[in-house]
Amino acid sequence: MLLQRLRGSLKTQEGQLTLGLCALIVLLMGGYGAVLIVEQQQALREDAERHGLELARGLSLIGATAVLDNLFVMQEALTSRAGRDPDILSVLVVDRDRMVIASDNPMQIGEILADAAIQRAMAGGREFVLEQKDAQGRDTLAVFEPLRADGTLLGWIRVDLSLERAWREAYRTLWKQLLATVCLLVVALYVFLKMVRRLKGALHQSEKKYRQLWETSTDAVIFMDTDRRIRFANPAIADVFGYAPEEVIGRDIAMLQPERLRQGHRDGVTRYMRTGVKKVNWRATELVGLRKDGTEVPIEIAFSDMQMDGKHWFVGFMRDITERKKAEEALHQSEERLRQSQKMEAIGMLAGGIAHDFNNLLTAITGYSELLLGQMQPDSRARKNAEGIRKAAFRAASLTQQLLAFSRRQILTSKVLNLNAVVMDLEPMLRRLIGEDIEIKIVPGSALGQVQADLSQIEQIVLNLVVNARDAMPKGGRLTIETANVEWDETYAGRHETFQPGSYVLVAVSDTGCGMDEPTRSRIFEPFFTTKEPGKGTGLGLATVYGIVKQSDGYVWVYSEPGQGSVFKIYLPRLKHVSDKGSTEAGRALPPRGTETILLVEDEEFVRTLVGDIFEENGYTVLRASHSDEAFRISGQHEGPIHLVVTDVVLPGMSGRELAERLASSRPKMKVLYISGYTDDAVVRHGVLAESVAFLQKPFTPEVLLRKVREVLEASVNRSMT
Question: Contact, 286 vs 294, CB < 8 A?
Answer without folding.
Answer: no
